[in-house]
């Protein structure tokens, strides 16, 4: 297959970096899995977090189109995910907020790809805060114990305090 034509230079650069690990016919997907599984070739969290931080939403949307089957639901899903916000009772560093937002977007991708059980994706959410210098802060211990990912229900809210 010839090199895909990308809309944004950032997605083109990302593809150039990871192309050896991508499926030959389906960019950004893992060649060891069926393309129908939409299994990504790598963890895109750092790239999406960086693009969120710099306001590059068109790059995220473009990457999204390679990671899920396109359709009205998928486009609505990424639009909603990009405007998601953390509840005000969660205090994180700005970097951790972007990483958590990226994890949320990729969690939705898994939901649109038909992954039956995405509950294990909640583990990286807690590690985002614990890996940082400033730990996850909440207004009550109950909130942290009930933190879970529930895609396609109430949107995650990410806002600066």
Beta-strand content bin: under 5%
- Helical amount: 40-55%
Helix/sheet category: mainly alpha
Overall spatial form: globular
Helix and strand sequence: HHHHEHHEH
What does this structure look like?
The radius of gyration is 16 Å and the shape is globular. Strands 1-2 form a two-stranded antiparallel ribbon. The chain has 161 residues and is mostly helical. The chain is 46% helix and 2% strand. The N and C termini lie far apart (47 Å). The protein has a domain at 43-145. It is built from seven helices and two strands; from the N terminus they run H-H-H-H-E-H-H-E-H. Helix 2 (45-53) crosses helix 5, helix 4 (72-82) packs antiparallel against helix 5 (94-112) and helix 5 packs antiparallel against helix 6 (122-130).
What are its keywords?
single chain; 161 residues; mainly alpha; two-stranded antiparallel sheet; 7 helices
Helix and strand layout, with pairings?
Elements: H1 9-18, H2 45-53, H3 57-67, H4 72-82, E1 90-91, H5 94-112, H6 122-130, E2 137-138, H7 141-145
Antiparallel strand pairs: 1-2
Helix pairs in contact: 2-5, 3-4, 4-5, 5-6
Quick structural gist:
The chain is mainly α. 46% of the residues lie in helices and 2% in strands. Strands 1-2 form a two-stranded antiparallel sheet.
